[in-house]
Design goal:
By secondary structure, this protein is of the alpha/beta class. The chain has two domains: 4-15 and 86-213, Rossmann fold (3-Layer(aba) Sandwich), CATH 3.40.50.1000; 17-84, DNA polymerase, domain 1. The chain is built from ten helices and eight strands. It has helices at residues 17-30, 38-44, 49-57, 63-80, 91-100, 113-123, 146-155, 169-178, 192-197, 207-213, and strands at 4-7, 14-15, 86-87, 104-112, 129-135, 162-166, 181-185, 202-204. The strands form two sheets. A six-stranded parallel beta sheet has the order 5-4-1-6-7-8, sandwiched between helices. A two-stranded antiparallel sheet has the order 2-3. β4 (104-112), α6 (113-123) and β5 (129-135) form a beta-alpha-beta unit. α1 (17-30) crosses α4 (63-80). The longest helix is centred in the N-terminal third of the chain and has 18 residues, at 63-80. It starts with a strand and ends with a helix.
Length: 215
């Protein structure tokens, strides 16, 4: 039986921390704000660009500051993501094998939609993703299951025939709320203990283990 494999992007298929941290710090510097280490930025990733910049500003930030920083971040990210984003080793080969096995592939990210589509097209030109969705204004972001359910419908599959694969508790919660099988990967940006606490169906530490554990 073929399954729908829905992958998170940042921290799951690609290591985008350098590009995000560089762009965020350039935007913060533009506005005269305190910058952050890459390790600190790692903890901000997962809830989309607005949450990223809000967390970087800290408590007490105004709506005007948040909006200005988000706009500046997007400008810098457009210029810097390519030099600061790397595919995790073994990912393209894994995706190709799963596609050849008859599984439908998709990406669901809280990264802005235009960036998500651009990055996937640029880094995975030979992979036939059936659906690629980033954060859109009209759709609630993960962990709301709306995007995951939209992908399942686009694939022509019941949610129970889909697998949500990601590195964060947000991904696990999204899959669970959508009625999907959930796989948490430990090579990304989020704490393994927190992942276990969300009770995914499977936790994997490598690409090889991921392929062995896929239903």
């Amino acid at each position: 039986m073929s399954n729908g494999l829905i992958f998170d992007l940042d921290g799951t298929l690609v290591d985008s921390l350098r590009g995000i941290a560089t762009s965020l710090n350039l935007a913060l510097a533009d506005l005269g704000k305190h910058t952050h280490t890459a390790e600190a930025v790692r903890r901000f990733i997962g809830n989309g660009a607005r949450e990223l910049v809000t967390k970087s500003l800290g408590p007490g930030a105004t709506e005007e500051e948040i909006a200005s920083l988000e706009a500046a971040f997007k400008i810098h990210y457009a210029a810097n993501w390519a030099a600061g984003t790397d595919i995790y080793p073994g990912v393209p080969e894994m995706l190709k094998r799963q596609s050849e096995a008859g599984h439908r592939l998709a990406v669901l990210s809280n990264k802005p939609h235009d960036f998500t589509v651009e990055i996937v097209r640029h880094l995975f030109p030979d992979i036939a993703f059936a659906s690629v969705l980033g954060q859109r204004a009209e759709v609630p972001r993960k962990p709301d299951p709306a995007g995951a359910l939209e992908i399942a419908a686009a694939l022509g599959l019941a949610p129970a025939a889909c697998v949500m694969i990601g590195d964060s508790t947000i991904d696990v919660e999204t899959g669970s709320r959508a009625g999907m099988y959930t796989v948490a990967v430990t090579w990304g940006y989020h704490d393994t203990g927190a992942l276990l606490g969300e009770r995914p169906d499977v936790v994997v530490d490598s690409i090889d283990e991921l392929e062995r554990m896929l239903p």
